[in-house]
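Case study 2.
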Amino acid sequence: MGDDPPGRFVEIYEHAYRPVLAYVLRRCQGPDDAADVVAETFMTAWRRIEEVPEGDAARPWLFGVARRVLANHRRGERRHEQRTAALREQLAASPLLARLPQDGLSEISRVFAGLSEDDRELLALVAWEQLDTAQLGRALGISRNAVRVRLYRARRRFARALAEAGIDHSRAVEFQRSAL
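Prediction:
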């Protein structure tokens, strides 16, 4: 084994990167997943540089590492899918969702969706997460005074949008309370 592990790694990487990438691309669903697998494969080679065989034997060794990384990646994807399915089931059975008023919900939701992303986030943090101005300031990284000003303006824009849509403001307040 050489006395220059960084130099040896560069040599291995330059020699095997394209073949390993091609191997992984043929086995992954997308290029982002492939990039993660290739990065982890070469990270393993870096950590275990003393174990990487010399010469042409390095490439098959890397294929073996990539194969194990792919298997781990797939197991992780399956666990994620299982957790997502379980969360969907929990949410479907959630009493919070069962309490949402059905009449006018789509109208209010449409108006709410028409607000800017910043306004929606601010109003949602207040209405649904029940954060006060100090907590909002910490969450958004701004002062309490800035929160008060932004909240005042966001509420005015929401009220104006509701009025323009012909929705009684009291229905929106009722919607917010029932969604808590």
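The radius of gyration is 27 Å.
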